[in-house]
Amino acid sequence: MNDFHPFGWYAAKISPHLPKKAFQPVRSRLLGGLAYLLVVTGGILAVSLFDFHPVWNLLISIVLGFSFAALGFLGHEILHGTVVKTPWLRDLLGALAFWPLCTGPKLWRKWHNATHHVHTQHEEKDPDAWPSMEQLAKSRLLRWVYRIPFPVRASFAFASLSVMFTVHSIRMLVSFWQDFRWKNRIVVLCQFLLPWTTWIGLLWLVGWEKWLFAFLLPLLVANMIVMGYISTNHRLNPLMPVNDPLANSLSVTVPKWVDVLHFHFSYHTEHHLFPAMSSKYYPLVKEQIKRMWPDRYHEMPMTKALAALWKTPRVYYEHNELIEPKQGHVYGTLGNGLDPDEIAPRRREEDAEASPATRKAKWKNASGAGKA
């Protein structure tokens, strides 16, 4: 695929084939949020007030984690303005939905709506994009990480999904802090601190053991579920100068009942084409994409996408490939030679004829680049 188009180009061609109601807010989504809120409240009260066997508390924690994640998916939809349009109500409901994940609405809209969606998979401007070889050479931390053997690093990366959304949210707070005016910084900081104050207050009330099951374990479960989706959204796709959702995004498939419970969060290409549309109508968008551009659309089961992530590195080489820097193994990306059913690397042309000693020396030189 050599000709790329911005998301508006696709949206203009699909829109005439969609019903007018698809472009209106869907307030009924709040009923699902209310149901999850009741489950979360009931689960936390059950763990806090009763002395259940740890096995039962663990099961409650898993349900709470699933509910935390689902509320996050709803919060994502709310803050795109697809549930309510009134700004103050949108932010209030979004804050409540994101409360378990401790992410504030003003920061989220700056980081996700105004930056990630506008600059998706741009090497320098997308805050969620993974690094290129050039960025690797400038980062001492990344150079250290990529000295770790690939299987060990892949195992650690998947384990870290249990904390990654929380960690990345804090990183985005620091990264975008200077972009806010002083009066907005106070709001952003309050929106960050209030949820944490609530959960730390719960710790003070119920003690470590009950807090572990009422919040900490659910938060880890929620991180794992949320990052299970987010990690497949773009990480198998190339870096691109053009924000083309059919090239830079992946939709995954999950059982229909999971799609319902997760507010159709799996439809990610569709979301990047119509971020201001309720995900309730994304199945209709998918039908039109597959009718108009079946060869461009990237879709696969989530389990297969996660397996592909496990088997490939996360550093970009020449923007449209992934590379394991130390060995020089290069993998394709979606639309650029990656076959999820048979993932196999090739060696860079400049490394193919080099001796192991030469390749090792080149890696050491690259690893030392940018040191002060």
TrEMBL record:
The chain crosses the membrane at residues 30-50, 56-76, 154-174, 186-205, 211-230. The keyword 4Fe-4S does not apply. InterPro entries: FA_desaturase_dom, Fatty_acid_desaturase. Residues 335-372 are annotated as: Disordered. Keywords: Membrane, Transmembrane, Transmembrane helix. It holds the Pfam family FA_desaturase. Residues 56-300 form the Fatty acid desaturase domain. This is Fatty acid desaturase domain-containing protein.
